[in-house]
Structures are given as structure tokens and as C-alpha cells.
């Protein structure tokens, strides 16, 4: 970020606000300790890789499916394990309105 072209602008006498910000701690993962945001990161990663849904209906179905996978992965669905494929199909159907 610092280079010969902007050294003058970053001097403490000319721009103390910038110098104060540069001394502060930089967090590269701001939501890593936030429980809700860290759970939400799996959805964000998948949606970013897919370049996002085009319609609202697609977004609803896509997020419901990703949430179903996360619930099964984390063991939040009682009686359904990773190996119980019939139970997983039921969860997907219930969340997507197919049952």
C-alpha cells in the first residue's frame, strides 16, 4: 500500500487519521469469532462460487438446500445421520416443500 507516490500523503503531520488507522490491529477474518456469521460463511462460500442465484425462487430453494446440508452435517436433525440417505432425502423434501 505504501509507495513512493503516496509517502507524502501518509505523513503523520499531513494525515494523522491515516497514521492512526495504520497503527491499529488489522483483522483479516472479522467474523471468525461471531457464531452466527461463522455459521453463515458456508452459505456465502457456496453462493459466491455459483455467482449467485438469478431469481428469488431460485435463491429460496438454493439457500434451503444449503441449510439442509449444513443441518445434517452438524447433526442438528434428530435421528438422521450422514449415512441415512432416506432420512436425508426426507429432510430435503420437507425443507423444499416436496413432501
Q: Helix amount, in percent?
A: 40-55%
Shape: elongated
If you average the pLDDT, what whole number results?
Answer: 73
Structural class determined from secondary elements? mainly alpha
What percent of residues are in strands?
A: under 5%
Summarize the structure in words:
There is one protein chain. The chain has 99 residues and is an all-alpha fold. It has helices spanning 16-23, 35-49, 56-73, 85-96. The longest helix is centred in the middle third of the chain and has 18 residues, at 56-73. The chain is elongated and about 60 Å long.
What attributes characterize this protein structure?
single chain; 0% strand; 99 residues; mainly alpha
Chain-wise SSE layout:
Elements: H1 16-23, H2 35-49, H3 56-73, H4 85-96
Brief overview:
It contains four helices and no strands.
